[in-house]
Design brief:
- A hairpin with a 2-residue loop joins β4 and β5.
- A six-stranded mixed sheet has the order 2-1-9-3-4-5, sandwiched between helices.
- The chain has 18 helices and eleven strands.
- The longest helix has 18 residues.
- The chain has three domains: 193 residues, Serine Threonine Protein Phosphatase 5, Tetratricopeptide repeat (Alpha Horseshoe), CATH 1.25.40; 126 residues, Winged helix-like DNA-binding domain superfamily/Winged helix DNA-binding domain (Arc Repressor Mutant, subunit A, Orthogonal Bundle), CATH 1.10.10; 54 residues, Orthogonal Bundle (Arc Repressor Mutant, subunit A).
- By secondary structure, the chain is of the alpha+beta class.
Length: 411
């Protein structure tokens, strides 16, 4: 291997992008272009990095499949950081197979981590967990081990296993310290601090106070009827009834829970669920129908009784009802929560992560832009949206942008 290429590769592995550039900035051979692309990506110029890596892949040609595979993994990393969730998973899988075939365990594991992080962003937790479970962190380098534990923590947080998440973050911090990469050490510390921030608000019995994820986990372990406005579910313990696809029913459930132990008047329910301030008999008839549907949906957890003024929840078992609300009560809070990770997102990536249509997401972004809550740059398909992190808002992905795959060229 060329001594300058070897030195630049070691500098990149240690997180020293500027040092790597100093060694290969004036060279145009394939290995140097690949290393330049990775270094530029670490410095934040993702567009130039993609161009350099594409050029390196062409120059390597089909005679160097291992080098091409490493460049493809680097491209996948850039796509993930750019929140291009539609980037071809098949291409990454093919590169991973080549890396496995040539015995490059470090970059093959990195490719699997990238796929797990993409699945995590898309909310496909089971698939992400299956990928990381197949990797033994003890066989990985300290940097890869840090990423592994951060992904594990992200999965645990989304499943409200906060003790497991905290333990994983402690392991991530220890591995980051061993790696001596400043960026990874900072991300591990940031993730630990973020775990202690408020993640939701508790609304119950005239209370309105913030809760940390650990407190939400403890609350979920009690026999309490929880109307979760963050995930649009109603639950007691491990019995969860999702209402994300039935927004009218969830609005009614939340209004009834906020009024509990008193009843919620028909006027309040109609105004909140049907968004009208001038109800008539058609709205009252519709309310009876929707309450009947809600009563059937929530039958395993609670009853709903009619009163003279409206309706009231009658939980099965212990009488305790609470509402978990977002810290930021905004019509487009889900979009803001994704953008709060500090990365720039395309509308198509936001649509994939939210499971919504791209047009719906675009309308939300336009509305947020009008109120100066988000901003965009670029045009057409290159347009990206971002927002400064919101205070006291737990981001949806507490993962770093780790060093791009270490590049090693065969002589």
């Amino acid at each position: 291997m060329d001594s300058l290429i070897a030195q630049a590769a070691r500098a990149l592995a240690a997180g020293d992008a500027l040092g790597a550039l100093n060694l290969v900035a004036l060279r145009d051979d394939a290995p140097a272009l690949a290393l330049r692309g990775i270094a530029v990506a670490q410095l934040g110029d993702l567009t130039l990095a993609s161009q350099l890596l594409r050029k390196a892949i062409r120059l390597f040609g089909s005679g160097h499949p291992l080098a091409q595979a490493r460049c493809i993994v680097a491209q996948a990393e850039i796509a993930l950081v750019s929140r291009d969730l539609a980037w071809s998973a098949k291409v990454l899988h093919s590169a991973q197979a080549v890396l496995d075939a040539h015995g490059d365990r470090l970059n093959a594991a990195h490719a699997r981590h990238l796929e797990a992080r993409r699945l995590l962003l898309s909310g496909r937790l089971d698939e992400a967990e299956k990928i990381v479970a197949a990797l033994d962190p003890d066989t990985l380098s300290p940097a890869s081990r840090t990423i592994h534990h951060l992904i594990t923590a992200g999965i645990s947080m989304r499943r409200l296993r906060i003790k497991a998440a905290h333990a994983a973050l402690i392991r991530a911090r220890q591995a980051a310290l061993r790696s001596q990469i400043p960026g990874l050490m900072a991300e591990a510390e940031h993730a630990l601090h973020a775990l202690k921030r408020p993640a939701a608000r508790l609304l119950a019995h005239n209370q309105n106070r913030p809760l940390r994820l650990e407190e939400i986990e403890e609350l979920s372990a009690t026999p309490t009827l929880i109307v979760d406005a963050c995930r649009n579910t109603v639950s007691i313990g491990e019995m969860v009834i999702p209402l994300a696809t039935r927004p009218v029913l969830f609005s009614l459930a939340r209004l009834l829970a906020q009024a509990w132990p008193a009843d919620a008047s028909r006027e309040t329910l109609i105004a909140g669920a049907f968004r009208t301030m001038l109800p008539d008999e058609t709205h009252r008839a519709r309310l009876r129908v929707e309450i009947g549907r809600l009563r059937k949906a929530l039958h395993p957890l609670t009853g709903i009784l009619a009163t003279q003024q409206g309706f009231v929840l009658v939980p099965h078992g212990p009488d305790n009802v609470v509402v978990l609300a977002s810290l930021v009560e905004d019509r487009h809070a889900a979009v803001l929560a994704l953008l709060a990770d500090g990365e720039s997102w395309s509308s198509s990536a936001l649509a994939l992560a939210l499971g919504a249509s791209q047009r719906t997401v675009q309308r939300a972004l336009d509305a947020l832009a009008c109120s100066n809550k988000v901003q965009s740059f670029g045009r057409g398909r290159a347009r990206r949206w971002l927002v400064p992190p919101l205070p006291d808002l737990t981001t949806t992905l507490l993962l770093p942008a780790p060093p791009v795959a270490t590049f090693e060229a065969k002589p």
